[in-house]
Every structure is written in structure tokens, then in C-alpha cells.
Amino acid sequence: MPDPSYVGRSLSPAEPYQVSREKIREFASAIGEDSRICHELDAARAAGHPDLVAPPTFAVTFTMPLIETFLRDPDFGWDYSRMVHGDQSITLHRPIRGGDELVTTIHVENLTTRAGSHMLTLRCEVADVVGEPVATTKALLVTQATS
Amino acid sequence: MPAWSAIAKGDELPPLELRLTRADLVRYAGASGDFNPIHWSDRTAAAVGLPGVIAHGMLTMALAGRLVTRWVGDPAAVRSYAVRFTRPVVVPDDDAGALLELSGKVGDVREAEPDSCRVATIDITARFAGKTVLGRAAAEVVLPE
């Protein structure tokens, strides 16, 4: 049974995640995104960006592992093995780019139990190292309640 | 390329058909760091009651996003993107893989700050085996001048 006292809490900010050019290229290739600004530095700079631009869903690659660490913490009491991803939203306050150092803070927004399922909404605020907002992601995660 | 100033509600995006194979799932697992075995192991997928190995929801979301970035010609133009995961995409262990059919249309166009750019909301439909796999899928993109 997940601990409802977590709702409304913010977890400690994670260590900065450094966005590498190679990770952007690898991720873009894995989803078949062939835009030159995701692969070629010259093209990205010609389009006015300081470095390669990450595809829109890239942020989840570093927010999800942080979410997993939280959800596997026995104190919270979440059954990670039976979890499914219900929905996902990503708001980009600016594009994520190579060389960015990004700090993610997880906020536990909501937890409800209905029809034998626990539904958890987590919001991740992603900022640069001086605190300027870069992205906001929100995930609805669902796991079966043990009877 | 569309005449951007004339883009209006109801305009349809060019559709996109993509084939997903097991190799694509393995590649996405590595690139995203999501190594959940339901995305590569038949044994695990069967044990948790799935009809087979399924694509990562986030991979389906990313592929559907390509419909929009291809149309607008710029992955940096996306301001927001949201989906609900309503059905799994089952990916067989063969050369044909799973066919994902993507379509979209302009749901709204508005002027937005700070520089009175035009922002379009694109409503996306993603189908696999004749059924939608994403619900309420929509992206907001800044239109080129």
C-alpha cells in the first residue's frame, strides 16, 4: 500500500544530468528522428541553437530512472513490478540541448485508489543549474492494489 | 511545404506509416535506459499476461511525435506533447514487425507570447492493428513564419 503522506511532497533535487551530444544522436536514431539539428552540430548552430537539439520526448530518459529509484524505495510501498504507464505529458520551456546540465525535482502530486488500482501522478520540474526552468514532465503511473 | 500563414483548424498532416521490429525495441531500450524485459523477453511478457512483447509506451509516443516534427520541419518547435497510453503495441519476433499508422490534424491555431508567434495544436491518431493505441494525443508546435 503506497504511503499517502507523500502526496504534496517534493523530493530532494537529483544530481545534475549532463546532456551529451552522443546521447542526443543515439536517442534520435533510436526513434528514427532524422532532423539534422539532432545530429549535425553545424546544422543546429545554423538554426540558432548552441548545440544539438534533443527530440521532444528525450527528457523522459533522465526523469524516468529517478522516478524508478523513488518507486523502488520500500518506504513508499509501491509495487513497481506490476506498474503500467497511464499517461505522459512533456512541456518544454526551451529545447533541451547538448551540454545542458539539468536538475530534476520530483513532486508527488496525487495518489488515488480506485477499482483495485493505485494511480500516482508525479510531476518532474527540470531546470538548469542556475534554476531557469527547462521542462516540466508529468506521468500517471498505475499499479494493481494487492488484495 | 505548407503555406504556414494559411494553416488553420482542420488541416490534415501527411500521414506516416512506421514498422517496428524487435531490433527497434532493443535499440530504444539502450537509448532510453528502459530495460524492462516486457519489451524484449517473450518469457517475461507471457508471465505477466501480455499477448507478447510490447513496445515501450514512450517509444510509441516518440514515433508519433515524428509525425509532427516532420511536418513542421523542426524538433525544436515543439512546446508541449501529451498522450494517454490506451493499448499496447505488440511486436512479433519476425522481419515484418508491427505496423504503426500515424495521422494528425490541426485542432487549433493561436497567437502566443512572447513574440506573437503562431502556435498550432496538433491532434494525433496512432493506430496499430486497426485500433488506436494513444488517447488524447496532442502536441503544441510553434509554426514557422
UniProtKB/TrEMBL annotation, chain A:
Protein name: UPF0336 protein
Annotated InterPro entries: FAS1-like_DH_region, HadA-like, HotDog_dom_sf
Domain FAS1-like dehydratase, first and last residues per copy: 6-136
Record-linked Gene3D superfamilies: Hotdog Thioesterase
One of the Pfam families matching this protein, by short name: FAS1_DH_region
SUPFAM superfamilies, A to Z: Thioesterase/thiol ester dehydrase-isomerase
